[in-house]
């Protein structure tokens, strides 16, 4: 399945156009390699997604073409989640 479609179907990112934009900006890696929106993903692949100040590492557990909201959370597992510190907050 295409990376952008997986991100939308799994509801990690709500819109496919946003998933495509993030991937094409180089903010997603698949198994350590920079990925484009058209990259194929498979079960057991590991994604690292950079959202602004948050970085998530996700393992793909299953690929389903269409899902309901409650089924989507079974498609992946969050392996790690980290946040960059905002240095501006402490400078007041």
Automatic annotation (TrEMBL):
Role summary: Key component of the ribosome quality control system (RQC), a ribosome-associated complex that mediates the extraction of incompletely synthesized nascent chains from stalled ribosomes and their subsequent degradation. RqcH recruits Ala-charged tRNA, and with RqcP directs the elongation of stalled nascent chains on 50S ribosomal subunits, leading to non-templated C-terminal alanine extensions (Ala tail). The Ala tail promotes nascent chain degradation. RqcP is associated with the translocation-like movement of the peptidyl-tRNA from the A-site into the P-site.
GO biological process per UniProt: rescue of stalled ribosome
CDD domains: S4
Protein name: RQC P-site tRNA stabilizing factor
Domain RNA-binding S4: 1-64
HAMAP family: RqcP
Family to which this protein belongs: Belongs to the RqcP family.
Keywords for the protein's UniProt record, in alphabetical order: Protein biosynthesis, RNA-binding, rRNA-binding, tRNA-binding
Pfam families: S4
Subunit field text: Associates with stalled 50S ribosomal subunits. Binds to RqcH, 23S rRNA and the P-site tRNA. Does not require RqcH for association with 50S subunits.
Provenance organism: Paucilactobacillus wasatchensis
InterPro entries: RqcP (IPR025490), S4_RNA-bd (IPR002942), S4_RNA-bd_sf (IPR036986)
SUPFAM superfamilies: Alpha-L RNA-binding motif
Source taxonomy: Bacteria, Bacillati, Bacillota, Bacilli, Lactobacillales
Molecular function terms from GO: ribosomal large subunit binding; rRNA binding; tRNA binding
């Amino acid at each position: 399945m295409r990376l952008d479609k997986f991100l939308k179907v799994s509801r990690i990112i709500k819109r496919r156009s946003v998933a495509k934009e993030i991937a094409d900006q180089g903010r997603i890696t698949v198994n350590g390699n920079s990925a484009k929106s058209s990259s194929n993903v498979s079960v057991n692949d590991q994604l690292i997604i950079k959202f602004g100040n948050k970085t998530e590492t996700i393992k793909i557990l299953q690929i389903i073409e269409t899902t309901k909201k409650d089924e989507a959370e079974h498609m992946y597992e969050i392996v790690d989640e980290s946040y960059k510190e905002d240095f501006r907050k402490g400078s007041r």
